[in-house]
Amino acid sequence: MSWKGFSKSVSRAPQTFKAKFNIGENTKDPVYIDAERRFQELETETKKLHDESKKYFDAINSMLTHQIEFSKSIQEIYKPISGRMSDPDSVIAEGNPEGIRACEEYEAIVRDLQDTLSPELEMIETRIIKPADELLEIVKIIRKVLTKRQHKQLDFDRHRTALKKLQDKKEKTLKDEKALYKIEGELEQATQEFNYFNELLKDELPKLFKLEREFIRPLFQSFYYMQLNVFYTLHEKMQAINIGYFDLTLDVEEAFSKKRGDIQEQAEALTIVHFRTSGNRASNLNSRHNKYGKKAEEAKKYGKPAESAAGEAPPPAYTATTNAGETSLGMSAIAKAKAKPPPPKPKPKAFAAATPQVETVTALYDYEAQAEGDLSFSAGDVVEIIQRTGNENEWWTGKLRGKTGQFPGNYVKIN
Amino acid sequence: MSWAGFKKTVNRATTQVMMKAGQIERTNDREYEVEERRFRVMEAAANNLQKEAKGYLDSLRAMTASQMRIAETIDSFYGDSGARDGVSRSYRQAVEELDVETIKALDGPYRTTVLEPISRFCAYFPDINECIKKRNNKLLDYDALRNKVKKLVEKPDQDPTKLPRAEKEAQMAKEIYEALNEQLQTELPKLIELRVPYLDPSFEALVKIQLRFCAEAYSRMAQVQQYLDANTREEYAQGQLDSRVEQVLQEIRDLSIAGGA
To answer: A55 to chain B: nearest residue by CA?
Structure first.
């Protein structure tokens, strides 16, 4: 701040204070006040428009990038994995060559999409973000004028109060007379300045509002068409996807469970994926191990986690189709009923469900809340049941450590 | 860390140093190592997949959310005039529907078919890593104990019970190590083999969800068109809208409060 600016703000300080707490006489121009309020709205809205259109632009870009990256990552998964990278002969014939081809095709489509969209997106940048940016600049200049008017108003009020005080004085000294003369001059000037800015703003702000509306209409229309084009292109290109690898006739979830079969159960039948839970038992054994002896027994126990895990494995008797049909049916029914993702695939666990009303259940597995209102717990926690159904494939409500929430019934065992 | 755990850590660190110095022989299991390397490749790829799956959903959400805020802003700019031609209103409605209905409707399937299966698969890794760590520790223990036996054989101790005891310990360590090693060696390839059937359905689901999103987004957007003048489209194509924007901007600049005139 310049020295001049500083001294001005010091001399205005008392009046600023008075204005804030509404002491003494303060000028209030209702027309102007309303205009100012509208201007403030305009200021924030312009800023929002500018920021959001930028975010929009970025989001579309990142959406496409993620699509490509996803495809690349899944391609990595499909590729045969060799333990000896440098030795090409070590590659065993595994992996998923058709999948890789599908990835390549898909990636080509998305890349093409990205190329086609980039001029469209460019247009958002030049025709929406840039004008909004320029308007924002202008708004900043206007904001300065508003501030200036505010200052002039303070000056005007300040001088007016000072003059009144002097005029009200009964006996005026010579010094007072001089001051009176000076203040009259100052007031005259302040009045002129204040009126100038006040009138100017009152006159031009409405013009600005009108222009703004005129500005926003074509801008919005442009934006709308750009958006429409973007979605149109997306739609067209995606619709043209003709990768034989995908079965596009089936519903998303249906096809998923059909393709998936019981792979998850198979994977979870492996002991190593539960190592931390089943491994604990092993380490307990180890500590006893240090005390020697009972080797044979230890060894037997050691093998036990594997056995028990195998016992939990699903009966493979289901044929893939009935299994898929059932799951998807159940899934969609629950989804409809609760508008909430169905419980993560039922874990294989056989127990009789028809036990009469019991108070608590013990968690068999860790469960992490996936939506608001879910109850998190870790395996072994005892959850108090608030409400439950006879079907373990539904969501139950329970209470744990003072928290109430829903959880999949197949994650717990009734005590 | 418990005292026992601390002791183990110290002992193992010593063993490792001795191995580096060539004092203790190291057991090498090449077959296992190949499997572990394969596992690492898969782990990296799957984690990447998880990241991208999340990123896609996030950017989709970000897009519809900012669309909605833009619509709100435009609606408020339009003010009373917006109510007259209904464009901004219907646009706002379309965008809101897109955000609320389409995204929310796709959110569930996306979670169950893409996000959750992938996350679940990735969630196996910490357990497996724990198992690998344990195997390596047990191997170190075994190597150290074997070395002890070797030393005792070469230079018998005065206490005759020491050797058999050490042998017994070494045997026990070997059993633990071998059980873990065996487990990893048979199960890692199984899991690696399962990765494709496990994760593959998610890819198809993702593509389908995208298709559905694009189709719905387009049809919702296209509905707004009926509220616009037929010739607006022409004007847009010919760039007249842009020149209009420019023109108004100039008019605003010309206002004396904007520093013009």
So the answer is: B66
Mutate to test the interface with B, among A43, A109, A216, A229 (most CBs of B within 10 A): A216
Show which of A200, A223, A240 is a domain's final residue.
A240
What value does the mean pLDDT of chain A take? 73
Chain B residues 66-125 with CB within 8 Å of chain A? 66-67, 69-70, 73-74, 76-79, 81, 87-88, 91, 108-109, 111-113, 116-117, 120-121, 124
Q: Which of A73, A85, A89, A288 to mutate to test the interface with B (most CBs of B within 10 A)?
A: A73
Q: Under an 8 A CB cutoff, do A279 and B249 touch?
A: no
User: Among A321, A328, A310, which Cα is nearest to A265's?
Assistant: A310
Domain count, chain A: 2
Chain-chain contact of B211 with A215 (C-beta, under 8 angstroms): no
CB contact under 8 A, B66 and A289: no
Share of chain A above pLDDT 90, in %: 0
Nearest to A279 among B35, B130, B212 (CB): B130
Residue-by-residue DSSP string for A214-231: HHHHHHHHHHHHHHHHHH
Residues of chain B with Cβ-Cβ distance to A244 below 8 Å are none
Q: Given a cut of 70, is residue B180 above it in pLDDT?
A: yes
Q: A303 in helix, strand or coil?
A: helix
Q: State the nearest Cα–Cα gap between B22 and chain A, in angstroms.
A: 26
pLDDT of residue A344: 42
- Average of per-residue pLDDT across A253-275: 76
ipTM of the modeled complex: 0.79
Q: How far apart are CA A26 and CA A146, in angstroms?
A: 17
Give the minimum alpha-carbon distance from B144 to chain A in angstroms, rounded to a whole number: 15
Instruction: Please report whether residue A301 resides in a domain.
Output: no
| pLDDT in the model for residue B51 | 92
Write the CA distances from B101 to A65, A250, B98, B104, B217, integer angstroms: 24, 21, 6, 5, 11
Domain boundary, last residue among A191, A223, A240 = A240
CB nearest B258 (choices: A142, A214, A224): A142
Task: Check B111 against A370: CB less than 8 A apart.
Answer: yes
> Count of CB contacts below 8 A, A vs B?
330
If you average pLDDT over residues B177-188, what whole number do you get?
A: 87
Q: Which residues of B touch A263 (CB under 8 A)?
A: 194, 197-198
Fold of the domain spanning B32-228: Substrate Binding Domain Of Dnak; Chain:A; Domain 2 (1.20.1270)
pLDDT tens digits, one per residue of A369-403: 777 788 888 888 888 888 777 777 777 888 888 88
pLDDT surpasses 70 at A118: yes
CATH number at residue A390: 2.30.30.40
Instruction: Give the residue among A384, A396, A385, A383 at the shortest CA–CA distance from A338.
Output: A396
The answer as to whether A87 is a domain residue is no
- Phi first, then psi, for residue A250 (nearest 5°) are -90, 155
**Predicted TM-score of the model (pTM):** 0.66
Domain around A158:
7-81+93-240
Give the CA distances from residue A161 to residues A57, A169, B107, B121, in Å, rounded to whole numbers and listed in that order. Answer: 54, 13, 65, 77
**CATH number, position A112:** 1.20.1270.60
Q: What pLDDT is stored for residue B28 in this prediction?
A: 77
Question: Does the pLDDT value for residue A77 go beyond 70?
Answer: yes
Please compute the mean of the pLDDT values over residues B136-154 and round it to a whole number.
87
B121 and A267 within 8 Å at the Cβ level: the answer is yes
The residue among B88 and A183 whose pLDDT is bigger is A183
